[in-house]
Amino acid sequence: MSENAKADVSSYSFEKAVAELESIVARLERGDVALDESISIYERGEALKKHCEALLSAAENRIEKIRLDRAGKPQGTEALDGA
């Protein structure tokens, strides 16, 4: 992976990473980018994709569902996946 692709994306918010990733996809789909640059921005896109996946995974791990008692009143919380 090139240095440009490795440029630190760890501080990016999910929204910023997705916006840059969408921009990269649009450029690649237009096909008006030189081959060398296409490879470079594709690698950058891969880094952004991995960062977004990590952020989504972290968010999923924090989500909890509310447990209700038999009367339907909130009783507490538990992991969303029941684990």
TrEMBL record:
An annotated GO cellular component: cytosol
GO molecular function, one term: exodeoxyribonuclease VII activity
Protein origin, superkingdom: Bacteria
EC number(s) reported in the record: 3.1.11.6
Alphabetized UniProt keyword annotations: Cytoplasm, Exonuclease, Hydrolase, Nuclease
Protein's cellular compartments: Cytoplasm
Catalysed reactions listed for this entry: Exonucleolytic cleavage in either 5'- to 3'- or 3'- to 5'-direction to yield nucleoside 5'-phosphates
InterPro entries in alphabetical order: Exonuc_VII_S, Exonuc_VII_ssu_sf
One Pfam family named in its UniProt record: Exonuc_VII_S
GO biological process: DNA catabolic process
Function: Bidirectionally degrades single-stranded DNA into large acid-insoluble oligonucleotides, which are then degraded further into small acid-soluble oligonucleotides.
Protein family per UniProt: Belongs to the XseB family.
NCBIfam families for the chain: PRK00977.1-3, xseB
Protein name from the UniProt record: Exodeoxyribonuclease 7 small subunit
Organism: Rhizobium hainanense
